[in-house]
Structure formats: C-alpha cells, structure tokens
Amino acid sequence: MKKYHPAAGTNLSDLDTPVLFLDIEAVEKNYKAVAETYKNTTCKMRQHTKNIKSPLLALMQIWAGGTVGGVCTAKVAEAEAMVHSGVTDILIPNQVVTRDKIARMCSLSRLGDIKVCIDSLENLEDISQIATEHKSRIGVLIEIDTQMSRAGVRDSSKAVELAKLAVKLPGVDFRGVMSHQALRGYKGEEDRIETARVAIQICLDAKEAIEAEGIDVEIVSSGETFSHDIACNMDGVTEVEGGTYALMGTIYGFMEKFAIANKVLSTIISKPDDKTAIGDVGFRGLSWMKDNLPSVEGYDNIRVKTLLEDHIVLESDDTMPLEIGQQFVVLPYYQDIMVNRWDDFIVVRNGVVEDVWDIPGRGGFH
Predict the structure, then answer these.
(1) Same domain, 28 and 141
(2) Closest to 156 measured CA to CA, from 201, 96, 125, 221
(3) Beta strands, E only, 30-105
(4) What average pLDDT does range 244-263 have in this prediction?
(5) Is residue 122 within 8 Å of 95, Cβ to Cβ?
(6) CATH code: domain of residue 130
(7) Which range marks the domain in which residue 267 is found?
(8) CB atoms within 10 A of CB 95
(9) Do residues 226 and 274 share a domain?
(10) Beta strand 44-48 with 239-240: parallel, antiparallel or unpaired?
(11) Alpha-carbon distance 34 to 215, whole Å?
C-alpha cells in the first residue's frame, strides 16, 4: 500500500480525504497543562500510550515535564515499539500470561525497566520461572480491581498474598500496586471528585495492607485523565496513568484545559436530500463506542446519524449547510480505536502541514 505523505507546507484544505491529522498546537497545550499540574507534586504522570501509539508523542510529554520519565503500554507489542524508540521505563498495566510474551518482556528488560501487572499466583510463578531461565528480572505490580469488574484482585488479602510471594521468588521484583477507574458519564465536579477518590482509595487500602506486613510498596499507579488532578493530591499515589488527555475526544469535553488534537478531515460526496449529507469516511477510519458517535467540528446543527464502512451520514434539523465537495472535520468521541486505524499522523500547525509521523504502536495486538 502506498502511504499518503503530503509535503510540508501543504494547506490543510489541500489534503486528500479522508485523512487523520494532528493539531500539534492542541497537543502542546495538553502536554503543557500536564506539566503544570505535576510541576510541584510528588506524584507524576505516566502517560498511557494505548491512545497515542507513538513514541515521539510519548517523548514530547516527557520532554515537557511532569512525568515519571516513562509510559504505560496496553500490550507487549506496544512496549516493544516504545523501547525500540528510546522510551525505556515501561509499565504494562495488564496481565501477560503466555510463555512467548513473557519471554519477550524478558528480552525488553535488558534494554529498560520493564514492569507488568499480576493478579494470580500462577501468573506470578510463571513470570518468575521464565525470567529466571532468561537470566533477567521483571518488575511486578499487583492490579487492584476498584471499579471496572475485569482484571485485578478483589480484596486486599489477595494482594498481600501475592506481595508475600513476589518478594520471595527469583527473577521478579515486587514494585507496588496499580488500579484503573472510569467515569461513566459526567454528572458534575462533585461526582467526578467523589468517584475518583472512592475508587483510588481501594488501591491505597491494598498498599497499606501490604505495608502492614513489612513489605515496601514503591509504586502506586492509579488515576487517569478524568482524575488526573485528583489522584496527584491523594497521599500515597505516586503516578497517574493518563491517556485520553493527550489527543482527547468529546467524551471528556467537560475538561476544558485539554483540547482535541486528533481529527479526521472528510469531504461531502453526496446530498440525498436538503437535510442529509454523506461524507467519504466511515468506521474504517473513525470509531464509536455503543451509542457514542463522533461529531462535526464547528456545526452545532449537524449530527452524525450513522457510520458505515466508508461513509458517514450527517443530518441537520435545518437545511444542510455542507455542499458536495466541501470539506469538514470529524471529532472523535474516544480516540483509541480511531488512531489504531491509521498508519500516520499528518501533523498540522496553524492549518499547514508541518510533518508526517508514523504510528509504530498501531495494531500492536500481540
């Protein structure tokens, strides 16, 4: 496949569509906001790269400040993309259970500080055995389920059991605890703060239970974009796993300090009636979560009716203002899936192409 690589200096309006572009000024604003938030805090940001999938974007936040100097990656493959590009402090806030992937972590550990989350004795023992065979060491954190009802131990006693075994086994270093939370709909600042505090405290309770057994807990990795400014002010949290803030989506539109940076430029190709228009991008280039569709920038009277493979159907309560051949910009509700569909970011500053950056973490399912 021939990649689309517009020259620097090309106007945004001259780009072929559909195309994913990166508003680099918005990225810089978001990174500056994080650097300012964590400038005088003990707790720092550990950016989650499942959203950006780009080592260069990760390094930009590290250079801007306010971070631990490393990142989170959802998968081993994403960790490899980061380490091979010079980001060597990695936490995989997920379980890695198969022999081949554990062996790949062992290889990475020779190049950087590799840490992974666990929630079972069997997995911990397997990591220890394989790391010992490879003469390497893997850091382990215990995942605490605080709200998500997926991976993670459900009570502090299980966390203590795992920590006691981790400090005894060869090939692993017990580093701490980790948890993840979500804000299921914005109901105001009071609810946002309370949701974050209640969930993160469960993780801190596990930390305290482990420390009561005389075991040092170096890392408490918790918090995310919606709670980034809350977690860093909770005593005991050492790092926050923010991801969405970097490129943003309308899901967190209430967080005005951050701007949407990842956008898709599309062109109207059909107008079946005076209230409907069809664009040249669909779910192969965009994403949505359940009933949460993307939106059209700058047009409050236009909504996305549906997405097909290569078409977006727009509708308006009034006469559709967009004409055939006219370009428009689509804003994602949530960007993880969307970014994963593209090979490159077309980097745009003030409406003009500045560069083209590849997305090496794209498709890192394995």
Answers:
(1) yes
(2) 201
(3) 44-48, 67-72, 89-92
(4) 97
(5) no
(6) 3.20.20.10
(7) 12-20+257-358
(8) 15
(9) no
(10) parallel
(11) 32
Instruction: Give yes or no for a contact between 15 and 265, defined as CB atoms under 8 angstroms apart.
Output: yes
Q: What is d(CA 170, CA 136) in angstroms, rounded to the nearest whole number?
A: 10
Rounded average pLDDT over 257-281: 98
Report how far residue 286's alpha carbon sits from residue 312's, in angstroms, rounded to the nearest whole number: 9
Q: Residue 33 — φ and ψ, nearest 5°?
A: -65, -40
Written as six digits, the tokens of 330 are: 């689509």
SS3 279: strand
Q: Dump strand ranges (E) for the chain.
A: 19-23, 44-48, 67-72, 89-92, 113-118, 138-143, 172-178, 219-221, 239-240, 262-273, 276-279, 295-296, 302-307, 312-316, 327-331, 344-349, 352-358
Tokens (6 digits) for 137: 């060491």
Q: What is the CATH number of the domain that holds 298?
A: 2.40.37.20
Query: pLDDT per residue over 207-229, tens digit each?
Result: 999 999 999 999 999 999 999 99
Query: Do 132 and 198 have their domain in common?
Result: yes
Tokens read off for 324: 């055939």
Residue for token pair 């059909």: 270
363 lies in some domain: no
Please compute the mean of the pLDDT values over residues 58-87 and round it to a whole number: 98
- At 143-170, the pLDDT tens digits run 999 999 999 999 999 999 999 999 999 9
Residue 101 lies in a domain: yes
Beta bridge partners of 1: none
Tokens (6 digits) for 275: 């209230």
Which among 62, 92, 57 has a CA at the least distance from the CA of 77? Answer: 92
